[in-house]
TrEMBL record:
It catalyses: thymidine + phosphate = 2-deoxy-alpha-D-ribose 1-phosphate + thymine; uridine + phosphate = alpha-D-ribose 1-phosphate + uracil; 2'-deoxyuridine + phosphate = 2-deoxy-alpha-D-ribose 1-phosphate + uracil. It comes from Marininema halotolerans. Keywords: Glycosyltransferase, Transferase. Homodimer. This is Pyrimidine-nucleoside phosphorylase. GO terms for cellular component: cytosol. PROSITE patterns: THYMID_PHOSPHORYLASE. The lineage of its organism: Bacteria, Bacillati, Bacillota, Bacilli, Bacillales. Its EC number is 2.4.2.2. Transmembrane segments: none annotated. It holds the Pfam family Glycos_transf_3. Its cofactor is K(+).
Length: 441
């Protein structure tokens, strides 16, 4: 098979066969196809797109380029959740124990965050002693016994995706929907899930800035999932402003505890119930999303979701006492109030800028090896749509290093828009995307 012929074919808008896609992915991964040919192909895809069969073939070729996690020894239907990123997204911490309490096994491989705030592992490590270095056997055993476990990703999953993503990053071919969809789905499928619930964010703080493209990406991923026998649904959710009130690792751990007690912020609670309900339906523990949602609400109200969180934290060596007494989580030395310069209604809280503010305080990594400060971050006091008086607190900065505080305060205030007109909170959940189609909510 001549690689140049395949580039030619895609350049002219024709469909490649599964064998042709295999030739490209395997050739690139093994080094027989050079970067320049693979970039030309990626650029052809950028302009011509891919059919749904081609996307599924690309996804599965990337899955088979590395290890595939086998979760067969875990009983039940394993449902994974993936979010396309955002600021202060505390959902994974809440959903693990919540969904497990409803009887759906959660076997999560996770990574550390490179970005504004930490990843799931960083957030969980806010519980002193918590470790994600489990053997596969211990991981499987814990899911079978407790219903939930989080393991640090050690396996070499989807190396072809890693390589192709690196190439796309420097050839202006990242923002191609078929390539993004195949990239994300390959990682989820290699991680062993039977079913996948996606949270595709839209807005200034998200990868997909506008709703139309977010829906298109969600549709592409749902279609890949059903093509390869993984039941997949997606919601489209708002990421104009941060999710919940807390941004920062221990602060989000506390926010997760509050949410599992039924005392969390309304938006975080709503998104967790929505995503969790779809996980429970796919996991076979309820017939409809409404029924699943009631089940989850029950698990919060009767304390079993919170109890599951404690069991899970303790099983992995963490200090479960912090669940009853969150002051045992890492605490910052300095709490600095940011006050409103004028009265008005909060019209915007730019998620990405606020994420950067949290990172400047030490909540995230600017480089891969940077050390995270679990204690620091930001707790919002107001969200979009809220009324504030002049001098009223907009947010509290939790800092250890005071040298950045003045700069962070200034940057935070620039990320806030106050208006003299009333403004309403953004619609949090915009649409549901399933195999059957898109439902606007
Ligand atoms: N995230 C991914 O994992 N892959 C992409 O291609 C883009 C975002
Ligand atoms: Ca949050």
């Amino acid at each position: 098979m001549q690689t140049v012929e395949l580039i030619h074919k895609k350049r002219d808008g024709k469909e490649l066969t599964t064998e042709e896609i295999r030739h490209l992915v395997q050739g690139y991964a093994s080094g027989t196809i050079p970067d320049y040919q693979m970039s030309a192909w990626a650029m052809a895809v950028f302009f011509q797109g891919m059919t749904s069969r081609e996307r599924a073939a690309l996804t599965m070729e990337m899955v088979h380029s590395g290890e595939v996690v086998n979760l067969d020894s875990i009983q039940g239907i394993k449902v994974d959740k993936h979010s396309t990123g955002g600021v202060g997204d505390t959902t994974t911490l809440v959903l693990g124990p919540l969904v497990a309490a409803a009887g759906v096994p959660v076997a999560k491989l996770s990574g550390r965050g490179l970005g504004h705030t930490g990843g799931t592992i960083d957030k969980l490590e806010s519980f002193e002693g918590f470790s994600t270095s489990l053997t596969t056997d211990a991981f499987v055993k814990q899911v079978n016994e407790l219903g939930v476990a989080v393991m640090g990703q050690t396996a070499d999953l989807t190396p072809a995706d890693k390589q192709l993503y690196g190439l796309r990053d420097v050839t202006a071919t990242v923002d191609s929907i078929p390539l993004i969809a195949s990239s994300i789905m390959s990682k989820k499928i290699a991680a062993g899930a039977n079913g996948i619930v996606l949270d595709v964010k839209t807005g200034k703080g998200a990868f997909m800035k506008d709703e139309e493209h977010a829906v298109e990406l969600a549709q592409a991923m749902v279609e890949i999932g059903s093509h390869v026998g993984r039941k997949t649904v997606a919601i489209i959710s708002d990421m104009e402003q941060p999710l919940g009130l807390a941004i920062g690792n221990a602060l989000e751990a506390k926010e997760a505890i509050d949410t599992l007690k039924g005392e969390g912020p309304a938006d975080l609670t709503e998104i967790c119930l929505t995503l969790g309900a779809h996980m429970v339906v796919i996991g076979g523990k309820a017939k409809t999303a409404e029924e699943a949602r009631h089940l989850l609400e029950e698990k919060i109200a009767d304390g079993s979701a919170l109890a599951k969180f404690r069991e899970f934290i303790e099983a992995q060596g963490g200090n479960g006492g912090a669940i009853d007494d969150p002051s045992q989580l890492a605490q910052a030395h300095h709490l600095i109030e940011v006050k409103a310069p004028a009265a008005g209604t909060v019209a915007a809280l730019e998620a990405e800028e606020i994420g950067i503010c949290a990172m400047m305080l030490g909540a995230g990594r600017e480089t891969k090896d940077a050390v995270i400060d679990h204690a620091v971050g930001i707790v919002l006091a107001k969200k979009v749509g809220d009324r504030v008086e002049e001098g009223e607190v907009l947010a509290v900065l939790h800092a250890n290093d005071q040298s950045k505080v003045a700069e962070v305060k200034e940057r935070f205030l620039k990320a806030v828009t106050l208006s003299d007109k009333p403004s309403s909170p953004p619609r949090l959940i915009r649409a549901l995307v399933t195999e059957q189609g898109v439902t606007t909510l």
